[in-house]
Protein backbone atom coordinates (compact mmCIF):
# COMPACT_ATOMS: atom_id res chain seq x y z
CA UNK A 1 0.00 0.00 0.00
CA UNK A 2 1.34 3.44 -0.92
CA UNK A 3 2.19 5.76 1.95
CA UNK A 4 -0.27 8.55 2.64
CA UNK A 5 1.19 11.86 1.54
CA UNK A 6 1.86 14.68 3.97
CA UNK A 7 -1.28 16.69 4.53
CA UNK A 8 -1.63 20.36 5.45
CA UNK A 9 -4.38 23.01 5.43
CA UNK A 10 -5.36 24.28 1.99
CA UNK A 11 -2.94 26.90 0.69
CA UNK A 12 -0.02 25.77 2.85
CA UNK A 13 0.56 22.24 1.59
CA UNK A 14 3.15 23.17 -1.04
CA UNK A 15 5.07 25.32 1.46
CA UNK A 16 4.99 22.55 4.04
CA UNK A 17 6.32 20.02 1.55
CA UNK A 18 9.09 22.34 0.41
CA UNK A 19 10.15 22.96 4.00
CA UNK A 20 10.06 19.23 4.70
CA UNK A 21 12.43 18.60 1.77
CA UNK A 22 14.83 21.30 2.96
CA UNK A 23 14.85 19.96 6.53
CA UNK A 24 15.42 16.43 5.28
CA UNK A 25 18.40 17.49 3.18
CA UNK A 26 19.74 19.62 6.03
CA UNK A 27 19.71 16.64 8.38
CA UNK A 28 21.54 14.21 6.11
CA UNK A 29 25.27 14.03 5.50
CA UNK A 30 24.87 12.68 1.97
CA UNK A 31 23.03 13.51 -1.23
CA UNK A 32 19.60 11.92 -1.57
CA UNK A 33 17.97 10.56 -4.74
CA UNK A 34 14.44 11.67 -5.48
CA UNK A 35 13.06 8.24 -4.64
CA UNK A 36 14.55 8.43 -1.15
CA UNK A 37 13.15 11.94 -0.58
CA UNK A 38 9.72 10.71 -1.63
CA UNK A 39 9.92 7.62 0.58
CA UNK A 40 11.11 9.44 3.70
CA UNK A 41 8.48 12.18 3.42
CA UNK A 42 5.61 9.94 2.34
CA UNK A 43 5.22 11.67 -1.04
CA UNK A 44 4.56 10.22 -4.46
CA UNK A 45 7.56 10.34 -6.80
CA UNK A 46 5.79 12.89 -9.00
CA UNK A 47 5.03 15.22 -6.09
CA UNK A 48 8.57 14.95 -4.72
CA UNK A 49 9.98 15.72 -8.16
CA UNK A 50 7.82 18.85 -8.55
CA UNK A 51 8.77 20.17 -5.11
CA UNK A 52 12.47 19.53 -5.68
CA UNK A 53 12.42 21.18 -9.12
CA UNK A 54 10.77 24.29 -7.64
CA UNK A 55 13.47 24.48 -4.96
CA UNK A 56 16.19 24.05 -7.59
CA UNK A 57 14.73 26.97 -9.55
CA UNK A 58 15.19 29.16 -6.46
CA UNK A 59 18.73 27.94 -5.82
CA UNK A 60 17.79 26.29 -2.52
CA UNK A 61 18.44 22.74 -3.76
CA UNK A 62 21.06 21.51 -6.23
CA UNK A 63 21.13 18.41 -8.44
CA UNK A 64 24.13 16.15 -9.01
CA UNK A 65 23.58 14.72 -12.52
CA UNK A 66 26.31 12.13 -12.05
CA UNK A 67 24.49 10.47 -9.14
CA UNK A 68 21.00 11.81 -9.95
CA UNK A 69 20.77 12.96 -6.33
CA UNK A 70 19.98 16.20 -4.53
CA UNK A 71 21.60 18.36 -1.84
CA UNK A 72 21.17 21.84 -0.37
CA UNK A 73 22.03 24.60 -2.83
CA UNK A 74 24.14 27.73 -2.49
CA UNK A 75 21.01 29.78 -1.91
CA UNK A 76 20.67 28.14 1.50
CA UNK A 77 24.15 29.38 2.41
CA UNK A 78 23.10 32.96 1.66
CA UNK A 79 19.92 32.57 3.69
CA UNK A 80 21.86 31.06 6.55
CA UNK A 81 24.38 33.88 6.53
CA UNK A 82 21.58 36.45 6.55
CA UNK A 83 19.93 34.67 9.49
CA UNK A 84 23.24 34.60 11.37
CA UNK A 85 23.60 38.35 10.91
CA UNK A 86 20.02 38.88 12.04
CA UNK A 87 20.66 36.93 15.24
CA UNK A 88 23.99 38.66 15.80
CA UNK A 89 25.86 35.37 15.50
CA UNK A 90 28.53 36.91 13.27
CA UNK A 91 29.37 39.30 16.10
CA UNK A 92 29.07 36.60 18.76
CA UNK A 93 31.46 34.27 16.94
CA UNK A 94 34.65 36.14 17.98
CA UNK A 95 33.62 35.73 21.63
CA UNK A 96 33.27 31.96 21.13
CA UNK A 97 36.60 31.85 19.28
CA UNK A 98 38.34 33.73 22.10
CA UNK A 99 36.84 31.38 24.70
CA UNK A 100 37.98 28.43 22.59
CA UNK A 101 41.50 29.87 22.32
CA UNK A 102 41.74 30.44 26.07
CA UNK A 103 40.41 27.03 27.10
CA UNK A 104 41.35 24.88 24.06
CA UNK A 105 37.90 23.31 24.44
CA UNK A 106 34.79 23.20 22.25
CA UNK A 107 32.30 26.04 22.69
CA UNK A 108 28.63 26.08 21.65
CA UNK A 109 25.96 28.75 21.42
CA UNK A 110 22.57 27.06 21.73
CA UNK A 111 18.96 28.19 21.60
CA UNK A 112 15.78 26.72 22.96
CA UNK A 113 13.19 25.22 20.65
CA UNK A 114 10.31 23.93 22.74
CA UNK A 115 11.66 21.15 24.94
CA UNK A 116 15.02 20.93 23.19
CA UNK A 117 18.36 22.71 23.14
CA UNK A 118 19.65 23.27 19.59
CA UNK A 119 23.26 24.05 18.64
CA UNK A 120 23.32 27.22 16.54
CA UNK A 121 27.01 28.06 16.54
CA UNK A 122 30.03 25.93 17.40
CA UNK A 123 33.79 26.37 17.66
CA UNK A 124 35.42 22.95 17.86
CA UNK A 125 38.42 22.08 20.02
CA UNK A 126 41.60 21.38 18.07
CA UNK A 127 42.73 18.80 20.63
CA UNK A 128 42.65 15.19 19.42
CA UNK A 129 40.43 14.06 22.31
CA UNK A 130 37.15 15.91 21.89
CA UNK A 131 33.43 15.32 21.42
CA UNK A 132 32.40 15.67 17.78
CA UNK A 133 29.19 17.63 17.24
CA UNK A 134 27.60 19.80 14.55
CA UNK A 135 25.38 22.85 14.27
CA UNK A 136 21.76 21.77 14.33
CA UNK A 137 22.31 19.00 16.89
CA UNK A 138 19.46 18.94 19.42
CA UNK A 139 18.97 17.38 22.83
CA UNK A 140 16.37 17.43 25.63
CA UNK A 141 16.66 20.51 27.82
CA UNK A 142 16.98 18.53 31.04
CA UNK A 143 20.03 16.55 29.87
CA UNK A 144 22.31 19.44 28.90
CA UNK A 145 24.16 22.29 30.57
CA UNK A 146 22.76 24.61 27.92
CA UNK A 147 19.17 23.48 28.43
CA UNK A 148 19.38 23.76 32.20
CA UNK A 149 21.00 27.21 32.01
CA UNK A 150 18.12 28.38 29.83
CA UNK A 151 15.44 26.71 31.95
CA UNK A 152 16.79 28.20 35.17
CA UNK A 153 16.08 31.65 33.75
CA UNK A 154 12.88 30.91 31.81
CA UNK A 155 9.48 32.28 32.90
CA UNK A 156 7.91 28.87 32.21
CA UNK A 157 10.49 26.83 34.15
CA UNK A 158 7.98 25.66 36.77
CA UNK A 159 5.38 24.76 34.14
CA UNK A 160 8.02 22.86 32.14
CA UNK A 161 9.10 20.83 35.18
CA UNK A 162 5.52 20.11 36.25
CA UNK A 163 4.66 18.82 32.76
CA UNK A 164 7.49 16.27 32.74
CA UNK A 165 6.72 12.58 33.32
CA UNK A 166 7.45 11.13 36.76
CA UNK A 167 10.45 9.25 35.33
CA UNK A 168 12.65 10.96 32.75
CA UNK A 169 14.23 9.09 29.85
CA UNK A 170 17.94 8.42 30.24
CA UNK A 171 20.56 9.28 27.63
CA UNK A 172 23.38 8.06 29.89
CA UNK A 173 23.69 6.40 33.29
CA UNK A 174 24.00 9.87 34.84
CA UNK A 175 21.00 11.56 33.25
CA UNK A 176 18.58 13.10 35.74
CA UNK A 177 15.61 10.80 36.20
CA UNK A 178 13.08 12.88 38.12
CA UNK A 179 11.53 16.35 37.83
CA UNK A 180 12.39 16.95 41.49
CA UNK A 181 16.10 16.49 40.75
CA UNK A 182 15.85 18.92 37.86
CA UNK A 183 14.00 21.53 39.94
CA UNK A 184 16.72 21.32 42.60
CA UNK A 185 19.44 21.81 40.00
CA UNK A 186 17.67 24.81 38.48
CA UNK A 187 17.60 26.46 41.90
CA UNK A 188 21.34 25.81 42.30
CA UNK A 189 22.04 27.30 38.88
CA UNK A 190 20.23 30.53 39.78
CA UNK A 191 22.42 30.83 42.87
CA UNK A 192 25.71 29.70 41.31
CA UNK A 193 25.31 31.50 37.97
CA UNK A 194 26.27 28.60 35.71
CA UNK A 195 24.99 25.10 34.94
CA UNK A 196 26.73 21.74 34.93
CA UNK A 197 26.30 18.61 32.83
CA UNK A 198 28.00 15.70 34.61
CA UNK A 199 28.05 13.25 31.69
CA UNK A 200 24.24 13.46 31.66
CA UNK A 201 23.92 13.95 27.92
CA UNK A 202 27.02 12.17 26.57
CA UNK A 203 29.10 9.69 28.54
CA UNK A 204 32.66 10.94 28.98
CA UNK A 205 31.80 14.62 28.44
CA UNK A 206 31.32 17.28 31.10
CA UNK A 207 29.96 20.73 30.30
CA UNK A 208 29.44 24.10 31.94
CA UNK A 209 26.93 26.59 30.61
CA UNK A 210 25.65 30.08 31.23
CA UNK A 211 22.44 31.76 30.09
CA UNK A 212 22.42 34.59 27.56
CA UNK A 213 20.00 36.91 29.33
CA UNK A 214 17.69 39.60 27.98
CA UNK A 215 16.92 42.85 29.77
CA UNK A 216 14.29 41.09 31.90
CA UNK A 217 16.75 38.45 33.08
CA UNK A 218 15.17 35.73 30.94
CA UNK A 219 16.98 33.31 28.62
CA UNK A 220 16.24 31.56 25.35
CA UNK A 221 19.91 30.93 24.56
CA UNK A 222 23.05 29.79 26.33
CA UNK A 223 26.81 29.49 25.95
CA UNK A 224 28.45 26.15 26.79
CA UNK A 225 31.97 24.74 27.11
CA UNK A 226 32.29 21.00 26.40
CA UNK A 227 35.21 19.08 27.89
CA UNK A 228 36.17 15.39 27.99
CA UNK A 229 35.80 14.19 31.58
CA UNK A 230 39.51 13.39 31.85
CA UNK A 231 40.29 17.11 31.40
CA UNK A 232 37.56 18.40 33.70
CA UNK A 233 38.28 17.98 37.43
CA UNK A 234 36.04 19.86 39.86
CA UNK A 235 38.49 22.78 40.18
CA UNK A 236 38.59 23.35 36.43
CA UNK A 237 34.82 23.11 36.23
CA UNK A 238 34.52 26.02 38.65
CA UNK A 239 37.12 28.03 36.73
CA UNK A 240 35.41 27.45 33.39
CA UNK A 241 32.02 28.14 34.97
CA UNK A 242 33.14 31.65 35.92
CA UNK A 243 34.65 32.19 32.46
CA UNK A 244 31.56 31.07 30.55
CA UNK A 245 29.37 33.41 32.62
CA UNK A 246 31.56 36.36 31.58
CA UNK A 247 31.51 35.28 27.93
CA UNK A 248 27.73 34.84 27.95
CA UNK A 249 27.36 38.43 29.16
CA UNK A 250 29.54 39.57 26.26
CA UNK A 251 27.44 37.61 23.75
CA UNK A 252 24.24 39.11 25.20
CA UNK A 253 25.37 42.46 23.82
CA UNK A 254 25.17 41.13 20.26
CA UNK A 255 22.42 38.51 20.22
CA UNK A 256 18.86 39.97 20.12
CA UNK A 257 17.43 37.49 22.61
CA UNK A 258 13.91 38.82 22.08
CA UNK A 259 14.01 37.35 18.55
CA UNK A 260 14.78 33.85 19.82
CA UNK A 261 11.38 32.40 20.57
CA UNK A 262 10.72 29.02 22.18
CA UNK A 263 8.15 27.07 20.19
- Estimate the strand proportion: 15-25%
- The CATH class of the largest domain, by name, is Alpha Beta
Element string (H = helix, E = strand): HEHHEEHHEEEHHHEEEH
CATH superfamily of the largest domain: GAF domain
- Domain unit count: 2
Task: Report the oligomer.
Answer: single chain
Content-based structural category: alpha+beta
Low-confidence stretches: 1-10
Strand order of the largest sheet: 6-5-4-9-8-7
Task: Spell out the blueprint of helices and strands.
Layout: H1 13-26, E1 32-33, H2 34-41, H3 45-57, E2 61-64, E3 69-72, H4 74-86, H5 89-103, E4 106-113, E5 116-123, E6 138-140, H6 145-152, H7 157-163, H8 179-192, E7 195-198, E8 205-213, E9 219-228, H9 234-251
Antiparallel strand pairs: 1-3, 2-3, 4-5, 4-9, 5-6, 7-8, 8-9
Pfam families: HTH_IclR, IclR_C
GO molecular function, one term: DNA-binding transcription factor activity
InterPro entries: GAF-like_dom_sf (IPR029016), HTH_MetabolicPath_Reg (IPR050707), Tscrpt_reg_IclR_C (IPR014757), Tscrpt_reg_IclR_N (IPR005471), WH-like_DNA-bd_sf (IPR036388), WH_DNA-bd_sf (IPR036390)
Characterization of this structure:
The protein has 263 residues and is of the alpha+beta class. Helices cover 42% and strands 20% of the residues. The protein has nine helices and nine strands. The strands form two sheets. Strands 6-5-4-9-8-7 form a six-stranded antiparallel sheet, with helices on both faces. It has a three-stranded antiparallel sheet with strand order 1-3-2.
Amino acid sequence: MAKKELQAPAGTQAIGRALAVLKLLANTSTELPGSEIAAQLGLSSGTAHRVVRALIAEGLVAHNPRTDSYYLGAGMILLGQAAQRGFGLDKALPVLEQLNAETEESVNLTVREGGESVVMLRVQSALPLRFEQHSGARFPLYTTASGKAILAHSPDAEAYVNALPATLSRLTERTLTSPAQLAAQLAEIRTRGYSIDEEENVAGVRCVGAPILDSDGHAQAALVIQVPTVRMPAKRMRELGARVVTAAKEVAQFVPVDRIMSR
